[in-house]
TrEMBL record:
The lineage of its organism: Bacteria, Pseudomonadati, Bacteroidota, Cytophagia, Cytophagales. CDD domains: MltG_like. It is found in: Cell membrane. This is Endolytic murein transglycosylase. GO terms for biological process: cell wall organization; peptidoglycan biosynthetic process. Its EC number is 4.2.2.29. Keywords: Cell membrane, Cell wall biogenesis/degradation, Lyase, Membrane, Transmembrane, Transmembrane helix.
Amino acid sequence: MSRNLKVGIFITLAVLTTTFTFYFWQIFKTPNLQLEADRSFALLIPENATYESVVDTLKKNQVINDEISFRFVAKLLKYPERVKAGRYLIKPDATNYTVVQKLREGNQDAVRLTFNNIRLKSELIGRIGPRFEFGEQKFREALGDPALAQKYGFDTTTIVSMFLPNTYDIYWNVSPERFLDRMHSEYQKFWTDERKAKAKAINLTPEEVSILASIVEEEQARKPDERPRVAGMYINRLQAGMPLQADPTVKFALGDFAIKRILTAQLMTPSPYNTYRNTGLPPGPIRLADQVSLDAVLNYEKHDYTYMCAKADLSGYHAFAENYADHLANARLYQAELNRLQIMR
């Protein structure tokens, strides 16, 4: 073999090696995505999804540029046989290799779930259900299952007390039961022995504390520092056997939370939640009480007040009274201010 032929063969092999090396480097190590620089894509893979359905989702959402190179890497890493359900965030700078490896290993990205300011069970279902694979219907069924509620120590009305408003990281493909397990775990963490002892000292169960805290929070959503005083006023009424006469329970009974001025006729709305018609606590919370409100009940301010109404200066605070005569005087001032501002409802 001549020297020139050997050189030619060497150069040809070198070029081919360089070409294939560059190609492999490109399909493995360079981005193959069409995402905007500041936008990630949440790939949702349901249970029993196939490899083809995953590729189809990426194509339909215009996530990958070169399907052929993606499939090549996927097959090389044996991903078609190892599809795992879950939620996966694909970042704009991801390569074929990093995407396939993430999916193949099942390295999920949790859903960051935040919920607060929820009054109705239907709101809770609508806020949480769509964020997870189980959806609204299965979540509704879980919350309406008496046996499941009893497992956690609640009934289907009071089970919403188990949901403490906060931010949680939870996997998208969690089952409704596992989701409820997590909520119950967080609930148990909150209810330390010290908190349970404080509840017992005021003759309330943790569930009853949640119900009272929901009323306290509805009464005083704007000024959290006043909640212990509000809680003390309601505890005084409970211990005296007086009806709570909490306006938020009337709004809840009416299903109208935009009311600014409750009329006398509305106070007689027939409902087990209406604390003007019923003595004691309602059958369930009128909102998801946050931890500040729960602690406000457990650490309530000790005083002799049994009445309160909003202050006439509309500051968001309340005027408290120990007797009905003083309360009426405070109420007249507030009503006069509402009349002046022409707030009739």
